[in-house]
Amino acid sequence: MPWDGHRRGSTGYRRVLAALACAGVATFAQLYSLQGLLPLVSRDLGVTAAQASLTVSMATIGLAVAVLPWSFAADHWGRIRTMGLAVILATVFGLLVPAAPNFEILLLLRALEGAALGGIPALAIAYLTEEVSRSNAAAAAGAYVAGTTLGGLFGRLLAGPVADLAGWRIGTLAVSLCAAAAAVAFLLLAPKPRGFVPSPREGFGSVLGKLLPQLRSTSLLALYAQAFLLMGSFVSVYNYLGFRLEAPPYLFPASAVALLFLAYLAGTVSSRMVAGVAARWGRRAVLLVSAGVMAAGLAMTLAAPIPVILVGLVLFTAGFFGAHSIASGWTGALALMGGAQASSLYNLSYYAGSSVVGWSAGLVFQQFGWTAMAGALAVLIALAVVAAVTLLPRSAGRAGGTR
């Protein structure tokens, strides 16, 4: 009898989500631990804001490049075994980052750390679709995305106060030690795979055969565009808002900048909510509304009063994670074959946007200020909306989605 997947409420279902939550902490706490510390890194190493942001971009570039190789490795070795190897390697590199003797070595270690981390987001959604009942897959994907927001939030909140007391190197070391504990928990919690069927070793032609269908689908291309444009905009705001608030008239310390990441809790909530709303109103409608909420929140950050900026950041964050939850789950539903590769292409686009837009937006910020950067990001959000309206099918968003 074919494996139907763990159903919501079962022990296996809870263990799958708990294991992926731990993987999310181990991954995203490390990946973005330096984001709230960029002003400290800039001053300590004598680099500009855009150069400091490369410590985030190099990690996401490494991740973007590695997601496809990890996905093919997992087709042969298995999802859990491959994710376990990835999270162990990432933790090793993460523990080396604080010891980097100069800026160039720091960037190299961050790129290697990101490449290792690529094995988690590349495979998490594919693992969910294989091990969780199809009727619960959308809710499980939302729960996983919510878990990644908590992982990213934890890393930033821990790094900021520790860095204020002992410097950015000790701040990142504290995060890496906690990520190591989360990696062990992932390995202990993940249930034995039951839905995975190993693939034989493949040649280059077979590899292309799995990739080309994903690249021929206009719907999947539209979702990859959402990943690139919306994630690029999201990371840019969080990369450079700290620089804005550290400067006069605000003069925030690193520990106060770290508190800005509490806005991630809005993403934790929205990523869980959208699955239910999409079941009623359709995935495309919820995706478009989420992008609109992002744009509204971004506009509010143009104001001078701190309370207005913070409300705008909360809206911006909730909108982004709502859109990301819908788009990432929809990617798996639309993939007729090569589900791991479809998810990996989504993640490649997602982290390419983080790397390219997250760095280049800093050049705009340095030269022209926050208002100009926000305007440029608003254009990217508008392009994502156009791609969604013109290329994505209308969908009731029910279990499995429209293929």
Tell me the layout of helices and strands:
Elements: H1 11-31, H2 38-45, H3 49-52, H4 54-77, H5 79-96, H6 103-117, H7 121-131, H8 137-166, H9 168-189, H10 204-216, H11 218-246, H12 254-259, H13 264-281, H14 283-300, H15 306-334, H16 339-368, H17 370-391
Helix pairs in contact: 1-5, 1-7, 1-8, 1-9, 4-5, 4-6, 4-16, 5-6, 5-9, 7-8, 7-16, 8-9, 8-13, 8-15, 11-15, 11-16, 11-17, 13-14, 13-15, 14-15, 14-17, 15-16, 16-17
Pfam families: MFS_1
InterPro entries: MFS, MFS_dom, MFS_trans_sf
Family: Belongs to the major facilitator superfamily.
Task: Explain what you see.
The chain has one domain (11-193, 205-391): MFS general substrate transporter like domains (Growth Hormone, Chain: A, Up-down Bundle). It is mainly alpha-helical and 403 residues long. The chain has helices spanning 11-31, 38-45, 49-52, 54-77, 79-96, 103-117, 121-131, 137-166, 168-189, 204-216, 218-246, 254-259, 264-281, 283-300, 306-334, 339-368, 370-391. InterPro entries: MFS, MFS_dom, MFS_trans_sf.
Précis, in short:
The chain is mainly alpha-helical and 403 residues long.
List keywords for this structure.
single chain; 403 residues; mainly alpha; Growth Hormone, Chain: A; 17 helices; 0% strand; disordered C terminus
Total count of helical runs of at least 4 residues: 17
What is the CATH domain class? Answer: Mainly Alpha
Question: For the CA atoms, what is the radius of gyration?
Answer: 20 Å
Domain count: 1
Number of DSSP strand runs: 0
Q: What pattern of helices and strands is seen along the backbone?
A: HHHHHHHHHHHHHHHHH
- Runs in which pLDDT lies below 50 for 5 or more consecutive residues are 396-403
Mean pLDDT: 84
Question: What fraction of the residues are assigned to beta strands by DSSP?
Answer: under 5%
Q: Largest sheet, described in full? A: none
* Intertermini distance: 25 Å
Q: What structural class do you assign from the helix and strand content?
A: mainly alpha
Q: Give the % helix.
A: over 70%
Q: CATH superfamily, please?
A: MFS general substrate transporter like domains
> How would you sum up the global shape?
globular
Reported CATH architecture: Up-down Bundle
CATH topology heading: Growth Hormone, Chain: A
